[in-house]
User: What shape does this take?
Amino acid sequence: MEILIDFPGGARVNAHVRDHIVQTDQPTSGGGDDSAPSPFELFLASLGTCAGIYVLGFCRQRNLPTEGIRIVQRVHAEKIELEIQVPPSFPKQYHKALIRSAELCKVKKTLENPPQFEIAVQETKVE
Assistant: This one.
Protein backbone atom coordinates (compact mmCIF):
# COMPACT_ATOMS: atom_id res chain seq x y z
CA MET A 1 0.00 0.00 0.00
CA GLU A 2 1.23 3.48 -0.84
CA ILE A 3 -0.21 6.72 0.52
CA LEU A 4 0.93 10.06 -0.92
CA ILE A 5 1.24 12.97 1.52
CA ASP A 6 1.26 16.54 0.22
CA PHE A 7 1.13 20.10 1.53
CA PRO A 8 -1.74 22.12 0.01
CA GLY A 9 -0.93 25.32 1.91
CA GLY A 10 -0.89 26.83 5.37
CA ALA A 11 -0.54 24.17 8.05
CA ARG A 12 -2.62 21.66 6.05
CA VAL A 13 -1.21 18.25 5.24
CA ASN A 14 -3.25 15.84 3.11
CA ALA A 15 -3.02 12.10 2.57
CA HIS A 16 -4.11 10.59 -0.74
CA VAL A 17 -5.42 7.09 -0.06
CA ARG A 18 -6.67 5.23 -3.13
CA ASP A 19 -9.16 7.72 -4.65
CA HIS A 20 -9.71 9.60 -1.37
CA ILE A 21 -8.15 12.68 0.15
CA VAL A 22 -7.82 12.72 3.94
CA GLN A 23 -7.36 16.30 5.05
CA THR A 24 -5.61 17.47 8.21
CA ASP A 25 -4.87 20.89 9.62
CA GLN A 26 -3.61 22.34 12.86
CA PRO A 27 -5.83 24.25 15.28
CA THR A 28 -5.46 28.01 15.19
CA SER A 29 -3.37 27.78 18.38
CA GLY A 30 -0.89 25.66 16.40
CA GLY A 31 -0.69 28.02 13.42
CA GLY A 32 -3.39 26.40 11.32
CA ASP A 33 -6.89 27.37 10.19
CA ASP A 34 -8.61 24.53 12.10
CA SER A 35 -10.20 23.45 8.79
CA ALA A 36 -9.79 19.74 9.54
CA PRO A 37 -8.72 17.43 12.38
CA SER A 38 -5.04 17.47 13.33
CA PRO A 39 -3.03 14.39 12.36
CA PHE A 40 -3.08 13.17 15.98
CA GLU A 41 -6.85 13.62 16.18
CA LEU A 42 -7.19 11.70 12.93
CA PHE A 43 -5.02 8.93 14.38
CA LEU A 44 -7.27 8.75 17.45
CA ALA A 45 -10.39 8.74 15.28
CA SER A 46 -8.96 5.82 13.29
CA LEU A 47 -8.81 3.79 16.50
CA GLY A 48 -12.42 4.48 17.44
CA THR A 49 -13.79 3.98 13.93
CA CYS A 50 -11.79 0.77 13.53
CA ALA A 51 -13.35 -0.61 16.72
CA GLY A 52 -16.70 0.58 15.37
CA ILE A 53 -16.26 -1.43 12.17
CA TYR A 54 -15.88 -4.60 14.23
CA VAL A 55 -18.85 -3.76 16.47
CA LEU A 56 -20.94 -3.03 13.36
CA GLY A 57 -19.84 -6.31 11.75
CA PHE A 58 -20.72 -8.27 14.90
CA CYS A 59 -24.21 -6.77 14.95
CA ARG A 60 -24.80 -7.29 11.23
CA GLN A 61 -23.77 -10.96 11.41
CA ARG A 62 -26.41 -11.52 14.09
CA ASN A 63 -29.08 -9.21 12.64
CA LEU A 64 -28.88 -7.06 15.77
CA PRO A 65 -30.03 -3.45 15.42
CA THR A 66 -27.28 -0.83 15.55
CA GLU A 67 -29.59 2.10 16.19
CA GLY A 68 -28.60 3.80 19.42
CA ILE A 69 -25.17 2.15 19.59
CA ARG A 70 -22.19 4.46 19.76
CA ILE A 71 -18.62 4.39 20.98
CA VAL A 72 -17.32 7.14 23.25
CA GLN A 73 -13.54 7.40 23.14
CA ARG A 74 -11.68 9.12 25.96
CA VAL A 75 -8.00 9.92 25.70
CA HIS A 76 -5.88 10.17 28.83
CA ALA A 77 -2.12 10.59 29.16
CA GLU A 78 -1.51 6.88 29.78
CA LYS A 79 -4.53 5.15 28.25
CA ILE A 80 -7.33 5.31 25.72
CA GLU A 81 -10.78 4.20 26.81
CA LEU A 82 -13.46 3.00 24.42
CA GLU A 83 -16.93 2.80 25.92
CA ILE A 84 -19.50 1.02 23.77
CA GLN A 85 -22.86 2.51 24.63
CA VAL A 86 -25.94 0.46 23.80
CA PRO A 87 -29.64 1.13 24.33
CA PRO A 88 -31.42 -0.75 27.15
CA SER A 89 -33.11 -2.94 24.56
CA PHE A 90 -29.78 -4.35 23.31
CA PRO A 91 -29.48 -7.99 24.45
CA LYS A 92 -27.25 -8.15 27.55
CA GLN A 93 -25.96 -11.57 26.50
CA TYR A 94 -23.94 -9.83 23.74
CA HIS A 95 -22.23 -7.14 25.88
CA LYS A 96 -18.98 -9.09 26.40
CA ALA A 97 -18.98 -10.20 22.77
CA LEU A 98 -19.16 -6.57 21.66
CA ILE A 99 -16.02 -5.89 23.70
CA ARG A 100 -14.25 -8.89 22.15
CA SER A 101 -15.27 -7.66 18.70
CA ALA A 102 -13.89 -4.16 19.32
CA GLU A 103 -10.63 -5.69 20.59
CA LEU A 104 -10.08 -7.20 17.11
CA CYS A 105 -9.47 -3.70 15.72
CA LYS A 106 -6.40 -3.74 13.46
CA VAL A 107 -5.35 -0.23 14.56
CA LYS A 108 -5.34 -1.35 18.21
CA LYS A 109 -3.42 -4.52 17.35
CA THR A 110 -0.84 -2.48 15.43
CA LEU A 111 -0.33 -0.22 18.44
CA GLU A 112 0.15 -3.25 20.67
CA ASN A 113 2.75 -4.71 18.27
CA PRO A 114 4.16 -1.68 16.46
CA PRO A 115 6.02 -2.03 13.18
CA GLN A 116 9.49 -0.63 12.71
CA PHE A 117 9.70 2.75 11.02
CA GLU A 118 12.17 3.68 8.33
CA ILE A 119 12.32 7.32 7.24
CA ALA A 120 14.47 8.46 4.31
CA VAL A 121 14.86 11.47 2.04
CA GLN A 122 14.77 10.98 -1.75
CA GLU A 123 15.43 13.77 -4.22
CA THR A 124 12.90 13.95 -7.06
CA LYS A 125 13.00 15.68 -10.41
CA VAL A 126 11.15 18.99 -10.63
CA GLU A 127 8.61 18.91 -13.43
